[in-house]
């Protein structure tokens, strides 16, 4: 190294100096002389290199002196060297050695430090200094020694590893003695890292980690976080490096690790993981579970995880102390206090490691009022929790608070004093502890009774801790109690201003309740909503919010709040009641009833609920009465009475209950007496009977008694008024039944006196004056002056009083003052335009003066609401207008009757009127008349019968005879001819209508001779020529029935010659149609068209004209005739329906148009649904529609709807069979299983059953059944059920052996069985098949089937001839479908031969010819495909081939089955031409349409390419 003297000396190697200075033996055995000698020799060896001989000699002498323990001599030599070379490193080292041996530590220390200063990276001085500090007499050099060891470690690190380890051990021991655990951990970790770098064995490393644990775990309390982490890391490494796992050492190490973790509160996750890992390794050990349980107890949490741990611990060891303690805490949380005390006591006897358990035990004991024991437990908890500086300060605070609370509850002087001491101790622990003042407040409030001091304590507690809800709540409650509202509000405002959303629930709640009490509901709503944001599951808060909403008038929202409260706490009866009351207010009476019933299930005799139920049923009764549902109203009244009676039984002192009983009884006044039979509880009648049935009069009397009972409890003007009205209703009921007038007058006088009493008690109430006026104006009293005075006083008491003005108008009208009445009604209308009675008054005035507006006014009354006067008045005017047949085309008739839909409107209101007034004969007569117009025959017969029965005993025989004639006519319309004849013959028949009615009844009964006599009698009394013509037409029909066709013609011609009528011409035309006389039918039709024009009879005219054109064979004229009529009258649904029915028969090429026509008819008039839907389904079947195209609008769906509307129509079931067959055919084409199989026999049986029940013509029934049988056989054949099909054919042939169609089907089934054997058919069988087809020579389908047989036998020429024969037949029959089918089959036959490459030009030309003809008939995609395939076969690669195939593929609306075939061939053509671009376009098209076959072919072709 460089020296100050200019000379140089090489550095001494560290490994040589280390052995001289580092001593490993105890100080008592250390040979210091030997060490000194060694150092001296090293120093001399160093000095030998120096050039100065004298220095070398001197250092050598010093070495020898040290070796000989002549340390003073050595010092002299060293000083000599220093004189010559004062920075000689070795000389200073020798001085340090010698001085140390001479017990001169300061000199030695100085020398070593000088040497270190000269050469800080040389070992000699550091080693010497270390030896010096290690001497026993060196006591205050621990810090310096640690620094020396650190330097030595630094110097040894790259050299002697063993010496480095020795120094490291010494340093760790030094740190451990000084309790510097962080330095111990870091240094020892360096040692382990060094060993790891040297490749130490796992066992050695394990021991090192264990040694580190031993060094660090002695005093874990004083360790900082870093030391803790190093210790835990050491544990983890030790656990992972253990050899035997599981094993006893490993198990103990794990225990130590868990115990260590349990001392660190912030290592919860690590503790839980360690416990779970140990449980996985040692599943039978309870220790980790016990640690976890104690941890959960100390943490104060009882989560699901904690419950699982302690339950598992108890399963493992039922006597485990921690497990029993946890079970006790669980019982405490579940309010099972006795079990909690027992378990906690037992657990604490088994373990003393859980101070918190004492606290829980004290809490449980307090709950069961074992206050003394609870205090002892608190003392035990405080003792176990240790000194104040221990880490259990929160638990100590809780223990002190609990102890104080318990002592306050003991409530004696000693306990109070001790409680105050406990609170003082708690305050010492935490000087800002507000709970101490809270408990003091409890003491002053509950024990000392000093509310002022308690209030101060609560305020102080809250000031110290503003988050303490209990203190704040107590302070606010006491403030309110003491009347200090300002303080309470200031506390609440202070909290709410600082509160974050979702917090301070108690403050928001208390302030909301304050606002609720002080009548500020909007502010209350806002605060209670804030409280709920903090705790959305507080049922009481929801209940309070409901009250706030209710007070604010937000009833719907209030209802939701009460329902939410009930949902959270089903035991809140008040919330349920308020919810029911709100439903009642909102008019949801049935919901309210259900809610009230819910209350009664819990509290059977809860009077508010009984009252609410009664009120709901009373409101339902009033609603039913308003809708004229009287029987339902009676039921509701009965139930209302039952509930009110139950309520009165429990609270007879409540006046309002008696008033409600009176209201309920009086409400029956509008109902017919025959309908009032109400069961009333015997207790209400003061009788022993359980229930008793009361009539209307008895119920009204009972109502008066109830009002009287209410008045005894409290005299209110409203009840006097109700009683007066009740007496008036009693008199009103007795008037029509012929009761003694004295009794009626007495009741009216009572009524008058009661109402006067009400007026005297409250003269400002307009209702009382109005009621007084009504009673005074009744005919039995007739005090019109008092009535007028009362109505005027009512108007003065209440300016907007529409009822009083209306009543005043009625009074004026009754007394003949029309103008004054009109003015009064006008004022009423201006006050409330929708008030019904003032409009009725105006209508009565209009009727009185003969105004044209009368009917319109009565109609308006029925639109506003239902009222007896308005209903009967309107019905009268409608019937009068209808009877005047001369005004049918006037504007007034069209407006009043047609446009205003008057007939059904009048029928509806009159039905309600007759329901409530069952003794009004005129109303029933009008009701029957209107029902006849609406074709409601049954209702008309009932109405006429009722009218006749009411008039039977009357003096007016003319009205009775008319009523009987009406009744007979309605019976005849119903087909009840015997009864009709009986009715007609029971009265004298002198007028034309009666005689004609009897004649018609005889005719419908089949008594034709009697009918002729009656008609001849009618003819003799007929006055007009029109009536005579009608009778002659009827006689002609009867003659035709008697098979006297010529006589019938003569009579009809006779009608036509005089004054032709439409009926006679229609009959004549129909006769021509029936007899197939086109000339007669055409002539009659011409005359009919001349005579009848316009909308009247348009449907019959079109129907007859269509039949005539069909007889003439003019199919196009049929469609044109109906279409022309529709064009003139597009709103006539019957015409659209007729067109839909005729299209499949006479215009089969336009089935979609027929379906559209049916849809229009159905839209215009749903009443035509049952026949229109059938027509729509047939048209859609003809058009080929199916479910895959449209799942909602298809033949199957429409025919199902038709059957649902009219299940007795056999034709609908037949169409259903056809629709199922069509759907099965479609799914077969799409390679899916048929969804509707096995229905054939069921549908055939259904059709047979329906035709047997109907009165349809025999020929029609036979044709329908034959078609269904053939269809069923065809379906069975196509689904492969050949044996069933053959059996069905044989069954049909047994009943009809000469049926050619069935015989042909039998041969087809048998032939199919033969063809399935794949054998050639013998000639005799082919000949038999040909004969069978010849027997059905008019069937084009039969020839097509024979052609297919020939084709299967490779008899192509024969097949061609059969197809040509079918084409010929179809052309002769005018069957467009038959022609198209024959042409396409012929083309396909020829194409099959062409594709087989048969060299014959006949077949290609046949394909071309047949497809060309087919395309002339229709734009047929199949024909275009066949032409394209012919071109493909001729010239596959030609451009024309591609063009023709693309036309089929890309043409919109082409069926996918056809397009798929064209796509297949086009793809092969494009691959042959190698046109990649067009191939890509085609493949995209195939993907878009889901063509799997084309995609598979593309894969094969692309792979081969």
Number of strands: 2
Q: What fraction of the residues are assigned to beta strands by DSSP?
A: under 5%
Tell me the strand order in the biggest sheet: 1-2
How many distinct helices? Answer: 78
- Whole-angstrom Rg: 58 Å
Q: Kindly name the structural category.
A: mainly alpha
Main sheet overview: 2 strands, antiparallel
Q: What shape does the CA trace take?
A: flat
Report mean pLDDT, rounded to a whole number: 80
Instruction: Bin the helical content.
Output: over 70%
Low-confidence stretches: 1-51
Distance between the termini: 89 Å
Map the helices and strands:
Elements: H1 14-21, H2 32-47, H3 53-67, H4 71-84, H5 89-101, H6 105-118, H7 123-134, H8 142-156, H9 161-177, H10 181-197, H11 202-216, H12 225-241, H13 248-262, H14 268-281, H15 287-299, H16 304-316, H17 321-333, H18 337-350, H19 355-367, H20 371-385, H21 393-410, H22 413-429, H23 434-448, H24 451-464, H25 469-481, H26 485-498, H27 505-517, H28 521-534, H29 539-552, H30 555-568, H31 573-585, H32 589-602, H33 607-626, H34 630-650, H35 655-666, E1 678-681, E2 691-694, H36 696-713, H37 717-734, H38 741-761, H39 766-777, H40 784-797, H41 802-814, H42 818-831, H43 836-849, H44 854-864, H45 868-883, H46 891-899, H47 902-916, H48 921-933, H49 937-951, H50 957-974, H51 977-985, H52 992-1005, H53 1008-1021, H54 1025-1041, H55 1045-1058, H56 1062-1074, H57 1078-1091, H58 1098-1112, H59 1115-1128, H60 1133-1146, H61 1151-1164, H62 1169-1183, H63 1195-1205, H64 1210-1229, H65 1240-1253, H66 1258-1278, H67 1282-1295, H68 1300-1315, H69 1323-1335, H70 1340-1352, H71 1356-1373, H72 1376-1395, H73 1402-1417, H74 1421-1434, H75 1439-1450, H76 1456-1473, H77 1476-1488, H78 1492-1504
Antiparallel strand pairs: 1-2
